[in-house]
Amino acid sequence: MWGVTDQPSANLYIPMIAVVDEIIDETPDTKTFRLRFEDKDYAKSFSWEPGQFVEVTVFGAGEAPIGFASDPSEKALFELTIVARGKVTQAMHALEKGDRVGIRGPLGNCWPLEEVKGMDLIIVSGGCGLAPLRPAILHVLANRNDYGEFWLLYGARTPADRDFKYDLEAWAKRDDMHLLQTVDIGDETWKENVGVVTTLFDKVKVKAENAVALTCGPPIMIKFVTIELLKMGFSEDRIVTSLERYMKCGVGKCGHCCVNHVYICTEGPVFTYQQMQALPELRL
Amino acid sequence: MKPVLTTCGFCSCGCALYVEPADSRVVGLHPSENHPVSTGRLCIKGWNATPAVMGADRLKTPLIRKADSLEPASWDKAISFAASALKRILADSGPQSIGVIGSAKTTNEECYSLVKFARCVIGTPNIDGAHRFYDASLIHALLETTGTPASQIDVNSVAQAGSMLVVGANVMEQLAHIGSRIQDAAENGCRVVAADPRTSRIAPQTSLFLHPTPGTDLTWIRALLKTIIDRKLYVDHAPEIPGFEELVVSLDDVQAGRLEDACGIDPDAVGEAAQILASNPPLVVMFGLGVLQQFESSRIVKALADVAVLLGGSVMPLRGQNNAQGASDLGLSHDLLPGYRPLTDPGARKVCEILWDREPPTEPGMSAVDMILGCRSGAIKGLMIFGENLALSAPNTEETLSALDKVDFLAVSDLYLTETARLADVVFPACSFLEKDGTFTNIERRVQRVRKVFEPIGESKSDLDMIADLASALGRDISREPAKVMAEISADVPQYQGVSFKALDESWGQQWPLKGAAPKLTPVPAAAAESDREYPFRLIASRVNYHQQTGTMSARSTVLAREYPEAYAELNEGDAEKLGVRPWQPIRISSKSGALIRTLMLSASVPVGCVHVPHFFGGDSPNSLASYECDAVSGVPVYKACAVKVEAVR
Amino acid sequence: MKAGDALVLKKSDALMFFASLANEMRLVAPRHLFGGDVMFGVVESPKEIVWDYGHDIYPPKRFLLPHFEDMFRCENGKTARIENLADAPAQAIIGIRSCDVMAIRFQERFFASQIVDPYYKSRSDNTVLFSLVCNKPPKKECFCICCDAGPYLDSGFDVQLTDLGDRFLYEIGSEKGAKATEPGAYMLSEAGAPDFDVRRRIELQVDSLFETTAYIAKAINFISEDEVPSQVWEELGSMCFRCAACTNLCPVCTCYTVDDRPEADGSFTRCRSWDSCQYSGFTREASGHNPRPTFGARVQRRFYHKATYQYIMRDGKHGCVGCGRCVSACLTKLDLPSVIKRIRRAMHEYLEPQEKAAEV
């Protein structure tokens, strides 16, 4: 049910050099970096799927795993959306256009977009969890006829804390998808829902028998969203999420992201709820 | 390349460490199987020793102050700059206006040479060591009781104890090898009585865990002594031990009925403790910084020594630093000559004159704390600090920083640009224990070899080289060869007789012998600290496993720093609720001397009315909450049980 | 020379035989350090080899997975040129024991599974193991027979030596072993029935000489089914000193961390070094959240990785070879045999009352 690409990463431990082409400020603590490989031949052969990630080296600071956040039809010029939280991501935020970073990847498995063709989709995300889902969303919108009903639920702390506001504006105008947004704390301009993302569920009209849910966000959000989805009748193998763990090598060797006998970086980060329930350390 | 056998530079266990170099990299690091203390094991700091002392930001050149910044300079310039400053001060204000503070981490050869440099090259009586901020109170207190200002037993003997009294020490975290032997002992039926305001990790091994109110150890220990005497639990010949009568008289005022109010301990528990400790020989009495940095620390140490002597047991003071023992042995003290000989001892003075060509003073000089106060008042015009981050280890940080900033001339030697080094006029880049030869003396009085694994990084030098350079610039000769210095030490210092590099190369170190002096008992009159209503909480300052003192070294190991990423403080849940503070929120802890912000965590192991603040890496330290109030006898500041208040940060 | 050949090497020829290897590869063997300490290291001459050592705390795994390994060096971000520092010297590890051989095979399989680790692979390709059968357990902490990892192996070795008195039985177990034998082959003769007899006698009597046991099988069931009560794990965790010696010195453990070390010239070197799931920082995330927040959770993790069928399925065998190093190295009693004992006792304490309650 979950996809694994069989393209091996070109360089297991040694990063390829990419240049920062553009930096977009998403929120006060989040930036999107558009990156382009220096080696043009490598750029041509580089391919990835929604849900996968790369290990980004910020020279002098270290390496961090970040999921692809851009349009998957554009492989060579890709975007990473990064929250400044730890040593490496804070160093990343200090970079400027033209600076170089190292990239190892693509790593991990991907959202099961092939497997769910023909089905209804509900995508539920919170905060910076929208970023790893964005390639899936863009893929679905670009191949709209391959999928059934499409619901996108997004919750953030405040209106200003939403990522990809430019996309959300455009998506709100589309008539081939349902976009529901909510914030914890509104402001004068906010006309949409106020409350946690689960408060949006009573507006969702989806038949669980032919639907699949993709979700990504803070662990507490995933927990409550999963409860709602199960209530709606989703089976455990139709609820899919992307997990996060402290990572180092990204290729299933160093042991940091290992949960029970599964490496989040190679057998994940995309897992179904059913798979998670089989791992004692992950049971919600 | 073959691994080099050296001695770890973190704690006083003094484990043997094999370090394998390849060019300037570490490629191997492992313990020794046959070393009597390590026995094939190391603690978390030992396993991560090399990155801690070889961090990327090691000082590589001397620095000289130009206005607001420190500029790189050559060694020649730095030494002559320092020498000129010292000469000027000597001429204008005399040697007593210069102070020298040494380290509990440098080698024996460096400590001894620093004493010589201060007393005979500069001629100042103001020479003291970093142990003044930690455990110096054990020196006079034990000299007057057991006669040995050190542990009377080996680390391995701890595993054979029949009973133990462990007071004010986070031994399981800070001295892992001793903690391991305590676990072994407990498994073999040893009865452990621990005392600590906080429930620490020794709890599973204890038969009895007393939780006195912070700062009241003297009260319950006096009650313990009185119980031992009243119930005649002492060894048969105790009444004949000199000092027995005076001790009995000094305890006349102890009243069981008032005990619980005074210190939070039930007299029945004290009775139980007395019974356990008296009926399960051999007894070992241990105490750590909880005692050594407390109000009336010298008196508490004497009381604990009295317990051991009355019950025929041994004393093992739990010193922390790798060479705290050696530094004390070699006279890095303002009031003693090397080998713990008083300044007035004629034999010692004669040796001094012969070996050092200078008459030592008859009066003690300034202690390290007094030197800081002297910087503030102007009595000290020049201060030299070797290998101690005073800005964080001294009390009353705000005043200390201002005093160090104010003093006319400050010279600092260290591995990194510490908070202290930043205030200096000249900074000497020191090399780590991996880059020099010498010796350390561990907690069981074992003198062991420190062997050079790498060439000093950049232009850093051993403190011995620096001291020799400075002496030379002032017209005197101090040897820069560690083996030669040790030969001088073994001729001068009675405890180190027979120690030589050759003998050390053929053994697992040489332990200096116990003198076999008859123990004495000393009286223990009462004393109580005042409480302060404005500052209703009691500070419990501790140290965690991954972190050593000010954290200068341990912060540079990513593994150690990763273990302990957040500067936190702990409160009991009830207290947190009353104050209206929630976990993961910042709180302010303040005293008359200073304030700290910490992230709050809740813990049931912290008693009501107390706030637990573990030491963290750099930046600030719970020491800032302490004032310059010191133990009257030893001059060690009172860091423990400070009166503080705790509030939410809005 | 081929795998399956059984030969004899006279002890009087051994020095010359191993010296003949030294032309092609460096020799790694146990050698004397100080005061009775013996550890594996590079030896200049076979004369340094110590054949009858007891403890060797620092495992020979470090010659395939170094304690500190520089991976590559990168010039500063402006030019960003990368220089691969991988180094895989040809080496013979002589005098290694069956337990360590099994551990190395385990690691080889792990590092080659799914995505191949190039550093480990090139080192192991260039390493040939000359293992020595233990005629008796070298130290009281050994328990390899409980783990099916010794004292002798039927397969999985390159060259297996057995001390028969004045000679070694020399068994070739792999192509690598056969190739490494070629330079000194002229010193070897064919093994015969008397040689196999001596070996058989050693095999028959060695089992009864072990002092330490670890009845792992039942514990594997409990741990795999997550049946061990959490208070047992927490009790074990409360003893831990967090020194991580258990994982450092375990010849099977492979976890490592990666650091970028800045150099004086502005470049940086990416290096990896042994890490441990016993550290609390091993899983702590940048947000401060720690999925394994207690010491008990971390002890449970170590034993999950060592003794569950989930891992046996992945790795081909459970993660312990009974070398006994954790028994020597642990500052408390969290070595595998002691923990297995504790778990077995716990299951009597907790499961029997439950079963009785269920019956009632």
User: What helical percentage do the residues of chain B reach?
Assistant: 25-40%
What's the number of helices of chain B?
A: 23
Number of beta strands of chain A: 15
Q: State the helix count of chain A.
A: 7
Distance between the termini of chain A: 20 Å
Share of helical residues of chain A: 10-25%
Q: What is the CATH class name of the largest domain in chain A?
A: Alpha Beta
The count of domains of chain B is 3
CATH-derived architecture of the largest domain in chain B: 3-Layer(aba) Sandwich
Q: Give the overall shape of chain A.
A: globular
Query: Low-confidence segments of chain B, ≥5 residues, pLDDT <50?
Result: none
**3D shape of chain B:** globular
CATH topology call of the largest domain in chain B: Rossmann fold
Radius of gyration of chain B: 24 Å
Helices and strands in order:
The complex is a heterotrimer of chains A (284), B (650) and C (360).
Chain A: E1 16-27, E2 30-37, H1 40-45, E3 53-58, E4 62-67, E5 77-83, H2 87-93, E6 100-107, E7 120-126, H3 130-142, E8 150-156, H4 165-173, E9 178-183, E10 193-194, E11 211-216, H5 219-231, E12 239-242, E13 258-259, E14 262-263, H6 264-267, E15 270-272, H7 273-277
Parallel strand pairs in A: 7-8, 7-11, 8-9, 9-10, 11-12
Antiparallel strand pairs in A: 1-2, 1-6, 2-5, 3-4, 3-6, 12-15, 13-14
Chain B: E1 4-7, E2 16-22, E3 25-31, H1 44-47, H2 49-53, E4 63-66, E5 69-72, H3 75-93, E6 98-102, H4 108-122, E7 127-129, H5 137-143, E8 163-167, H6 171-174, H7 176-187, E9 191-195, E10 206-210, H8 217-230, H9 244-250, H10 256-263, H11 267-279, E11 283-287, H12 289-292, H13 297-310, E12 314-317, H14 324-329, E13 336-337, E14 341-342, H15 346-356, H16 368-377, E15 382-386, H17 390-393, H18 397-406, E16 409-414, E17 426-429, E18 438-441, E19 446-450, H19 463-473, H20 482-492, H21 501-505, E20 510-511, E21 537-542, H22 558-563, E22 568-571, H23 573-579, E23 586-590, E24 595-602, E25 610-614, E26 643-648
Parallel strand pairs in B: 6-7, 6-15, 8-9, 8-11, 9-10, 11-12, 15-16, 16-17, 21-25, 22-24
Antiparallel strand pairs in B: 1-2, 2-3, 4-5, 4-17, 13-14, 18-19, 19-20, 21-26, 22-25, 23-24, 23-26
Helix pairs in contact in B: 3-19, 4-19, 4-20, 5-13, 8-10, 8-11, 8-13, 16-18
Chain C: E1 6-10, H1 11-21, E2 26-32, E3 38-43, E4 68-74, E5 82-84, E6 91-97, H2 98-112, H3 118-125, E7 127-132, E8 159-163, E9 167-172, H4 175-181, E10 188-190, H5 193-206, H6 216-224, H7 230-237, H8 245-249, E11 256-262, E12 268-274, H9 295-306, H10 309-315, H11 325-329, H12 336-359
Parallel strand pairs in C: 2-6, 6-7, 7-8
Antiparallel strand pairs in C: 1-9, 1-10, 2-3, 4-5, 4-12, 8-9, 11-12
